[in-house]
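Database export, one record per block. Field names are fixed; values are copied verbatim from the stored entry.
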Amino acid sequence: MGDREARRRRLRERNTEIRAAFEGEYKEQLEGLLGLSRDELDQITPDTTDVETYDKLIAVVREASAQNIRQAELKEHIMELGEVALEIAKRVPKLAAVLAI
């Protein structure tokens, strides 16, 4: 398989993963996270910690949505990300509801 074919295959696989995340159980929570502005994140912490954690939080919710994991497991993964992740999650009402915050 050539490099071009391998890149196309990886791109198709990635698109399938992204589609699954947006069609999964936590699609509204993921959309809410992606809708947060930079200003909203800066209100949590002015340094880059919030952006790094935000990216990790998006990845966790995206994976949870694609795999349709239980809410308790999603909550556990988010809590493992720490206080900044919890503060970001509170900004998304549907995600805060999952966490029962």
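Remark 1: The chain has one domain: 3-99.
Remark 2: The CA atoms of residues 36 and 91 lie 8 Å apart.
End of record.
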